[in-house]
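User: For documentation purposes, I need each entry recorded in a consistent format: the amino acid sequence on its own, followed directly by the corresponding structure tokens. There are two entries in this batch. Please keep commentary to a minimum and don't merge the entries.

Assistant: Recorded as requested. Entry 1:
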Amino acid sequence: MEVTDDKRLAKEDRKRLQIEHAPKISRRAKLVKLADKLYNLRDLNRTAPVGWSETRVHEYFEWAANVVAGLRGVNRALEDKLDALFAERGVSK
């Protein structure tokens, strides 16, 4: 439940809540979120979904960096891999 978005909420609210809740969730939930963000960002870095502009991709990376900021301190290896993706995309952490 800690890592599941409430799909009844608007997309922007769900995204905002991920940022707000990230620092407050359990260590195990943070590990799941870090791994999920890494998988999603690697996939997005390879190929953007149809209809996504470069601006939208960049905005997603920026949002993800804000979520990851609240998850830090539980797994250096995952965080380093995410940091490399952020650096590649020119997104500050």
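Entry 2:
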Amino acid sequence: MAGVTLSGVTKRFGTVVAVDTVDLEIRDGEFMVLVGPSGCGKSTLLRMIAGLEEITEGTIEIGHRVVNDVAPKDRDIAMVFQSYALYPHMTVRENLEFGLRIRKTPKEEMAARVREAAQILGIEELLERRPRALSGGQRQRVAVGRAIVRKPSIFLFDEPLSNLDAKLRVQMRAELSKLHKRLGTTVVYVTHDQVEAMTMGDRIAVLEAGHLQQEGVPLEVYERPANVFVAGFIGTPPMNLLDARLSADRSRLDGDGFSLPVSPAHRDEVAKASGELREVVVGIRPEHLHLDPERLEGPTAPLTVTVEIVETLGHDAIAHARVGDELVAASLDPHFTAEPGETVELQVALDAIHLFDAGSRMRLT
């Protein structure tokens, strides 16, 4: 096993900067998830770790060895792609053996590795089938198995579940997490799906426009987003973000169609902010809005909204509404109903509000 250290890693395609000066340490045996929207640079970063993409600037170390000029085959990594990339004319066994044959692995060892991988993934009965006779989930297991037989120091996954249906994705998420715990190998996993990031990663690294925005334990990133981008990206439904202005005495947050008091929990951070600060972004998670103040912790204040649509999900109902010109979402009781255009008074958990500087877009601390 080995860790990965990225120091000032940059990738340019002509004048386009795909990855910009990323510093990140991935610990030995850790499950690290690189997450962000399409085009944020996460797959490019993974390909640079794999050696499939040349680094423009910076260094990458794998197991304390700089690998900038090391060929992919000599980096002791195994990669699983979004496409299964199985050889259609080969059986599952032959697909699993292929990489080992190239490396001239002895037959007995090769057979033992294939047998072990098949047992771990529960595909023993599939070894003599060809890929066309497999379901999507089975093909993905074979693709993972082809990586496992290599016994690499690092597994690299590039959106491996994107081609699966919703139910199978949930199942495969659990299986990959169990596999990591069993093998204990370092994993770097790329996804645009923040649910995958939150449920699978020991830590997550959030990227946007080639920049590393924040890294940390999933719950830490969820509860204390570093900036407006992370706040709006992590969470389903995403955090509500409302433009507001601090009152002259810094006791209230006044915006289009609302006015909320600054709770005692936020007075210190507001007081420590620059004396010139007036424009802020107020962040409110959907679960911190409710009809009943008894369902929320700490002090509350009313927020009047105009309902546009209600999505009933079974375990709760997501009310999409407007405050002034801003859209907000609230996670309410599953039996909540309202007609479009109906005005409803919700309660806000004031201590759970997030405050960001409207200029820098960074969290007030």
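Summary note for entry 2:
The chain is about 25% helix and 35% strand.
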